[in-house]
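can u do me a favor
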């Protein structure tokens, strides 16, 4: 009797976990669709989504959660990512000319080979951010400690 009960409990817990994952994925996909159609997704939960190569010119992504998202090769020209969470996001080879990253979390983000001309990064957290091969000028990038 105990083995049957344990098997049933394990099966039910697995099924309940499987039901919650597609629900979250469906919510993320609805927000991705909204972003791609309207370029407005302020405060959206886009954790781990694949936006590689996406054309997000002038997109409003203020305070969006893009933790672990793949934005490789995306066009973020003029986009507003103020306060966004881009922790561990893949931003390799993005076009981020004129993009606002003010107060964004770029901890461990990969910005290698990115085009960052005129990017704004006031107050951004950039601990462990990979900027190797990144190209940019007129960037308000502060180096060092306190004021």
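np, heres the sequence
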């Amino acid at each position: 009797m105990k083995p049957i009960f344990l098997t049933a409990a394990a099966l039910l817990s697995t099924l309940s976990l499987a039901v919650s994952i597609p629900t979250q994925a469906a919510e993320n996909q609805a927000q991705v669709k909204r972003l791609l159609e309207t370029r407005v997704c302020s405060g959206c939960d886009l954790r781990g989504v694949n936006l590689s190569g996406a054309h997000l010119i002038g997109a409003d992504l203020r305070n969006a959660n893009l933790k672990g998202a793949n934005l490789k090769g995306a066009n973020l020209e003029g986009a507003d990512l103020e306060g966004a969470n881009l922790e561990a996001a893949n931003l390799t080879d993005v076009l981020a000319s004129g993009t606002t990253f003010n107060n964004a979390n770029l901890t461990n983000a990969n910005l290698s080979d990115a085009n960052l001309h005129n990017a704004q990064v006031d107050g951004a957290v950039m601990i462990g951010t990979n900027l190797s091969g990144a190209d940019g000028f007129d960037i308000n990038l502060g180096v060092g400690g306190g004021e």
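The CA atoms of residues 52 and 72 lie 5 Å apart. hope that helps!!
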